[in-house]
Design goal:
heterodimer, A: 502 residues, alpha/beta, Rossmann fold, 5-stranded mixed sheet, 5-stranded antiparallel sheet, 26 strands, 27% strand, B: 77 residues, mainly alpha
Chain lengths: 502, 77
């Protein structure tokens, strides 16, 4: 069944039951369905024939979901942008997307002049004035139309918009509903939402929950920063399906009260977004002996995830790293014989990057039989159909689940005043990125020569300069000043030498 | 004990300034993040056998090297 029809039938069945709870706010299935209908009527009135995608800005207010559904019901893709995105990037994205209207569940600090922000108050008015109006299904996005666009880090310093079609999302949810338990078990289940909506890991909880009549339980970023509140919030949620990055689970594990007693009805952990280590899996098994642990893998470009497996004690004992799973139905995994690159072939591969045919052509293509493929840039190998992850081919890393092009950060550091050269390297711990270190050469050399106070001040200046340009997770934790960056014979930055210094 | 904790902090923050100025605000100066805290608590447990759960105290009770040392001391007695 088509993804929107699945949500419609869940809404018809669940009626006044909560669809989303986020902090103090909650919204029922009926409200979600009716309010998004009303907002789609408004969008149609204002935008008419213009089907340009719509940026939705905010954090985890249930209204975000109303906006998402309103866009796709009115035949337009939505592009979620979280409040953690710095103003400059929000502006870049809004301009690239190119719609004159932006749905502001929160108000962005600054947007390009030609863009009108629909404020929360006006949105409320627009909805209330049209409540009860039904929007015709014939205008919904069609299966082949783009459902959402999610922007990810690009190596040149400009983010790339990954376009995911409605049919790709439908097929993803057909599969994701089987993870960690039967589809039957997911009806009325509670799903944890940890990731911001602009990170496609959230698609796993949002749409698995909404299409199966579950309840989405959002944990806001302010709560995630405060361990006491976080534990309390997790304990209150009656969570059944845990969807997060492994790093987030690690953070929770640091607190002793994070165990079976706190979340007694937990059925499964669904992980995606970065490497799951044996340490994390083993500790979770110890604290939550009844819950399943499911590891999945996939890039944004092939709709959240395409492989998955339940982690067993045997896998933890085995010599190799934890596997990332078997391909879902409709997907084939191929390994490039020469480079070991993982190539994903199948029915959830993206249509390509938004308004960027150059970059699209580099990594997307079609097999002789017409099926779409995507070259991931990840290295891996298959063992009896089970996929194992090896590393990256390029300068892309994953930090706490976020995909980061080191080149993107380097370019942004170089644009800071007084900076001559920069290199950014990851610090690994147990095969996983722990934090990033930036090596910076300044034109006057003061930060390099100065005392520890001066160094600290200069490092802070680099970080605060970057915070204006990049999302916080991309700002390196450590900044080391150098007289010169070491060079290889080819005149490239000698990353091996720098690696020894992180 | 102080020495050991300063070692841990220097390793975590990657800067010897934590020794030179034990009243430096680790959060404000961006020297430590929440994962570092987690790691610090694990190291303290391994080294001194003191269990400190992050939900037991607030950030401003542990935001300078001196305060961290004092917290550990208080729990040792």
């Amino acid at each position: 069944m088509f993804v929107l029809e699945k949500i419609e039938s869940a809404a018809a069945e669940r009626k006044g039951q909560p669809a989303v709870i986020s902090g103090e706010k909650e919204i029922s299935y009926r409200e979600l369905w009716e309010r998004s209908d009303a907002l789609s009527v408004y969008l149609e009135e204002v935008l008419g024939e213009d089907k340009t995608p719509v940026v939705v800005y905010g954090h985890k207010d249930p209204m975000m979901l109303v906006c998402f559904l309103a866009c796709v019901k009115s035949g337009r893709a939505y592009c979620p942008v979280d409040v953690s995105m710095p103003p400059e990037r929000v502006g870049d994205i809004a301009e690239t997307v190119g719609n004159e209207l932006l749905l502001g569940v929160e108000i962005p600090e600054s947007v390009p002049e030609n863009i009108r922000v629909l404020s929360p108050e006006d949105m409320e008015k627009a909805i209330n004035a049209r409540l009860g109006e039904r929007f015709p299904e014939s205008k919904w996005v069609k299966p082949e139309d783009t459902f959402y666009i999610i922007f990810t880090s690009g190596s040149t310093g400009k983010p790339k918009g990954v376009q995911i079609s409605a049919e790709a999302l439908t097929r993803f949810t057909d599969w994701s509903v089987t993870l960690g338990g039967s589809p039957e078990e997911k009806k009325t289940a509670v799903f944890l939402n940890q990731a911001p909506f602009s990170f496609d890991l959230s698609v796993m909880d949002v749409y698995t929950s909404l299409t199966s009549g579950g309840m989405l339980y959002c944990v806001e970023k302010e709560i995630q920063k405060d361990m006491g509140k976080l534990i309390e919030t997790l304990g209150r949620g009656n969570i059944n399906y845990w969807v997060s990055t492994p790093s987030f689970a690690d953070m929770c594990l640091s607190d002793r009260s994070f165990n079976e007693e706190l979340i007694s009805d937990l059925k499964a952990f669904l992980f995606c977004g970065e490497k799951l280590t044996k340490t994390t899996a083993a500790r979770l098994m110890e604290r939550f002996p009844k819950a399943r642990i499911v590891n999945t893998y996939g890039p944004t470009e092939s709709t959240v995830a395409v492989t998955g497996t339940e982690i067993t004690g045997e896998m933890i004992e085995a010599a190799e790293e934890l596997p990332i799973g078997y391909a879902k139905a409709g997907t084939d995994i191929e390994i490039d014989g020469e480079t070991g690159e993982i190539i994903i072939v199948g029915d959830t591969v993206s249509k390509g990057y938004f308004k960027d045919s150059g970059k699209t052509a580099k990594v997307f293509g079609r097999k002789a039989d017409g099926r779409a493929y995507y070259r991931t840039g990840d290295q891996g190998y298959l063992k009896d159909g089970m996929l194992y992850y090896h590393g990256r081919l390029d300068l892309q890393v994953k930090l706490h689940g976020y995909r980061i092009e080191l080149g993107d950060i380097e370019n942004n550091i170089r644009e800071l005043e007084g900076v001559e050269a920069a290199a950014v390297l990851p610090k690994y711990q147990e095969g996983k990125v722990r934090h990033l270190t930036a090596f910076v050469v300044t034109s006057d050399g003061t930060a390099f020569d100065g005392d520890s106070r001066a160094r600290l001040a200069a490092a802070k200046a680099v970080k605060s300069g970057l915070k204006e340009r990049l999302p916080e997770y991309m700002v390196p934790k450590r900044v080391i000043f150098m007289e010169n960056l070491p060079m290889t014979i080819n005149g490239k930055t000698d990353r091996k030498k720098l690696e020894a210094l992180v | 004990m102080e020495e050991k904790i300063l070692d841990m902090l220097e390793e975590l923050c990657g800067d010897s300034i934590v020794r030179e100025d034990i009243d430096i605000n680790l959060l404000e100066e961006d020297l430590i993040d929440s994962l570092d805290y987690t790691e610090l608590l694990v190291s303290i447990e391994e080294e001194f056998g003191i269990v400190m759960s992050p939900s037991e105290f607030t950030r401003d009770q542990m935001d300078t090297p001196a305060k961290i040392i004092a917290q550990v001391k208080a729990r040792m007695n």
